[in-house]
Amino acid sequence: MRGKIDKMDIQLIKLLAKNSRLTYKELAEILRTTRQRISRRMEKLERIGAIKKYTVIPDFDRLGYIYMIIGITIKPGIPMEPVIEKLKMEENVKIIERAVGSHNLVIHMVAPKEMKEIEKRINDLSSKIEGIDKMDITFITDIVKFEIL
Amino acid sequence: MRGKIDKMDIQLIKLLAKNSRLTYKELAEILRTTRQRISRRMEKLERIGAIKKYTVIPDFDRLGYIYMIIGITIKPGIPMEPVIEKLKMEENVKIIERAVGSHNLVIHMVAPKEMKEIEKRINDLSSKIEGIDKMDITFITDIVKFEIL
ipTM for the complex? Predict the structure, then answer.
């Protein structure tokens, strides 16, 4: 049974998605179980990688940043692994997602609100990725709704 | 000074972005201040909207879901507000972002791993948005890196 995800795990992740600062006690009360069981479940979910991270969603604009989503299509036949390994090390690259569909690589970047700096970072990024076929750059101006599950 | 964001606020948000479950005590120790001051700062950041949410990043694949990012370009002149208000109510639409650039609306959806169901949800979504010029659908297969700030 270790490593298996059940209904209670999904409920627990949904609660944490709404508020990851809920204490073991609060989670236990909502799910009508004990703190020990909640703590054991969360440890399991972290260990098997079902929970990747507890994080915060800031208002980037409020903090003085521009948040960009860059959808990249790499030409067929180009191996993605070396590209991803290189990008992982980049301080400016915050999120890297492998994908299929319109894009096969999605990159999220945060930059200060200066067009020259943004241009530089985008050029830097594209120079590091071999075989780019298409690059769709979208600047997020407002996060209107944010739920995870 | 209320509502102003300083260096310490940014440091605090960066710590919470790495692990939003850190306690006031742990945060106070790292930032060499008191629990009371941390708690007051976090309250301020939540109140002014600089912190939008404490959440968890799951492994969608592990939980049995497909995670999609849909970049939408709406024809010029079409008002976005009614579209956004309609989409906010949609249970399947998890994240809605206003944007400028390649797309002016970015939608994140989560769906069970069944192509028929995915097709249905995408068709449902597009039928609800007036004046779509272009729709780029990207299925996220793996989150390789995830940092926020």
Answer: 0.91
